[in-house]
Input
Amino acid sequence: MRSQVVIIGGGPSGLLLGHLLHRRGIDTVVLERRTRAHVLSRIRAGILEQGLVKLMREAGLSARLEREAITHDGTCIASDGEEFRIDFKALTGVPVVVYGQTEVTRDLYDAREAADAPIHFEVEDVEILDVEGTRPHVTFRQGETQHRIDCDFVAGCDGFHGVSRQTIPVARRREFEKVYPFGWLGVLSETPPIHHELIYANSPRGFALCSMRNAALSRYYIQCPLSDTPDDWPDQMFWGELRRRLPAEHAETLVIGPSVEKSIAPLRSFVCEPMRWGRLFLCGDAAHIVPPTGAKGLNTAASDVHYLYHALMEHYEDGEDAGLDAYSERALARVWKAERFSWWMTNMLHRFPEQTGFDLRIQRAELAFLRDNSDAQAAMAQNYVGLPY
Ligand code: APR
Ligand code: PHB
Output
C-alpha cells in the first residue's frame, strides 16, 4: 500500500487532520488501535474554542454543532462561598461553545465513513520507520496479516500512550512533566444543569466543577485523592460532597439523579519537544497533555492540526516546506501558553495536600485579584476563549 499521509490514531486529532486533508485531495490512511465504539465511549470535555469551531466549519462539519451547541458568554468562579463572573463576550468579543468533544469525534467518524476514506481499526504492532530517510513507511498487523504502507509523511495523533512520540530517539526528545497530587472524579447525569454557565469552585474541601452537555445532561467533577476509585463514590456520596463544595444558593438548587457515567482521571501537565522528527509530525495528546481545568486538551490539539494541515497543503500545492520546517516551533509556542493557563487555573482552584497557610493566602489573593481586576479578568478570558492560532 501507499498513501501520501499515514495518520496514527483515530481520535479527534487524527480524524480532523484526515478529513481536512481528504477534502483537499490528499490521500490519507488512519490507523486506530481500538474500535470506533471504544473511541466514542471515551468521555471527553465539552468546551470548544472558536478556533476549533472554525476548523470544523472549514472541514464542512459544523452543521450539527451549530444546531445543537450551546454558546456561553462567560463562566462563574466560586470561592469561600461567594462567586463572581468572568464575562468572556464583554472582555474579548467572543464566547465559548459547549458541545461534547465526544460529539466532535462522532461527527468526524461519520464524515470519514461518508467520504469512504480508509481507516483501519484494531491495528496492532504499529511501527513508524525510516522517517529520517528516503522511504518513510508504517508497518502494522491486523489479525494475522502484516501490512506496510509507504508514505510521504506520518502524523502521530496516537495520544499520550501511543507509539509516535517513542519513535523520536529518546536522546533527541526533551520531555517536561508535572503530575498533580489529585484526580478528578467525573459524573454524567441526565439532570438539568445547576446553572446556565459553568461554575468553577475552590472550596476548603477541594475543587468542584459544574458543567453540562445540554439542557438535560449535566457533567460534574470534584477533586479527589488519586487513590480513590469510582466504586468509592456511590452517587449519594458524590452529590453530598458536590453540594458541600458549592455556594449555598447553588447547592440548594442542585438537581441530582443517577449517574450514567462515573470515572476518575489523573491530572498531568506534559510536553514533548520537538513535535517533529524528519517526516513524522506529532499532534495533540501524542505531544502534550494538560490538566482539564482550562478545557485545553482538544482545543490545543486543534491548533496543532491547523498548523500541520496548512503546512502539508503548502508542501503539496506550492512545493513549499517552510510551514513543515516551522511546525514544531510554531505549535509549541501555543502549546506552552495553553500549558501555562491550565497550570494557573489548576493551582488557583484546587487544594493541594501540602499547602501551607501562606500558600492558602496566596491562592486567596489570586482569586481576589481576579475578582477585582478587569485586566486580570481580560487575561483569563483571552486564554479561556482561545489565544489566536
Ligand atoms: N496505533 C494506533 N492507534 C493508537 C495507538 C497505536 N499504537 N496508540 C493509541 N492509539 C489511538 C487511541 O486508541 C486513540 O483513539 O490513538 C487515539 C488518540 O486519541 P486521543 O487520545 O483522544 O488523542 P487526540 O486525538 O490527540 O485528542 C486530543 O481530545 O477530547 C480531547 O481530552 C482529549 O486531550 C484529548 C484531545
Ligand atoms: C466538561 O464539560 O467536561 C469540562 C468543562 C470545562 C473544563 C473541563 C471539563 O474545564
Remarks:
- Residues 45-47, 198, 209, 211, 219, 292-295 surround P-hydroxybenzoic acid (ligand 2) (CB under 6 Å).
- The chain has 13 helices and 19 strands.
